[in-house]
């Protein structure tokens, strides 16, 4: 068990962080990919599929992160987050709407202000590159939270991490966590740039040791984004971290998850790797923009026996 004294010792210097992170068990690349591929073949029956679709909808961070985003687009996205299918009130709401910091206030107002059931998440810290000063990153975070963000999605400095400057990455996460205050902090690893599964495991542990509430695969701006093997490694990390420290941390794959079949594969992966404690929007999210429509089409097919077709739902 890693108690507070041991955690403090690990974080006390660059050398101790390096010893700890490089002392983690290596990832069997072939084994991880084979395990993810095997779990991806699992099939679920109709009643379980209905449950899985509703669970996946409730876990979505409905996202728009484009330079052309407007207040009108964000308000439309928020309306969809609250009522994904206006013709069916039994469809659950999504978990959150994720926008750039300058559009947080618009999202907060559209979602109902204080006491809203759909969270507002905001990317920050020089998203997506993270190539800016710590002072700017902290200001970016504070401004998003002041505007009403419940959650902050920060990007790590991948250049520092890949150069082995673990202490710099750790200190930056700690500083952003402090700037975020009561808002939950999701730490984006940008796994497509980390090159190896061992690096994904080390980055996951580094983010958790620094106080991240969630670890997130990707910005969605770099290929490859979320993959099943990478998410498997991250789920193993949060499982092992809770066993070692008693603290539970969430996981968010993001980018490239577009179909119901994809979403169900991730839910199976969560259940079989970390366990059903993580099958909850508080602990697992799906970062997506186009996934929701496919889930709604599949849900309607189960209910009526007919596909509504993509034109039935709004394009986001």
Fold and architecture overview:
Helix content is about 50%, strand content about 10%. With about 325 residues, it is an alpha/beta fold. It has a single domain, classed as Aldolase class I (TIM Barrel, Alpha-Beta Barrel), CATH 3.20.20.70. α11 (about 230-245) links the parallel β6 (about 215) and β7. The N and C termini lie far apart (about 45 Å).
Key traits:
316 residues; alpha/beta; TIM Barrel; eight-stranded parallel β-sheet; 48% helix; globular
List the helices and strands and how they pair.
Layout: H1 4-10, H2 14-22, H3 29-39, H4 46-58, E1 60-63, H5 71-82, E2 96-99, H6 104-111, E3 119-124, H7 134-146, E4 151-155, H8 158-162, H9 166-180, E5 184-188, H10 197-209, E6 214-216, H11 228-245, E7 250-252, H12 260-273, E8 286-288, H13 291-304
Parallel strand pairs: 1-2, 1-8, 2-3, 3-4, 4-5, 5-6, 6-7
Helix pairs in contact: 3-11, 4-12, 4-13, 5-6, 7-9, 10-11, 11-12
Can you describe this structure in just a few lines?
This protein is α/β, with parallel strands linked by helices and 316 residues long. The chain is built from 13 helices and eight strands.
Unreliably modeled segments: none
Shape: globular
List SSEs in N-to-C order.
HHHHEHEHEHEHHEHEHEHEH
Strand content: 5-15%
What characterizes the major β-sheet? 8 strands, parallel
Strand segment count: 8
Number of domains: 1
| Overall SS class | alpha/beta
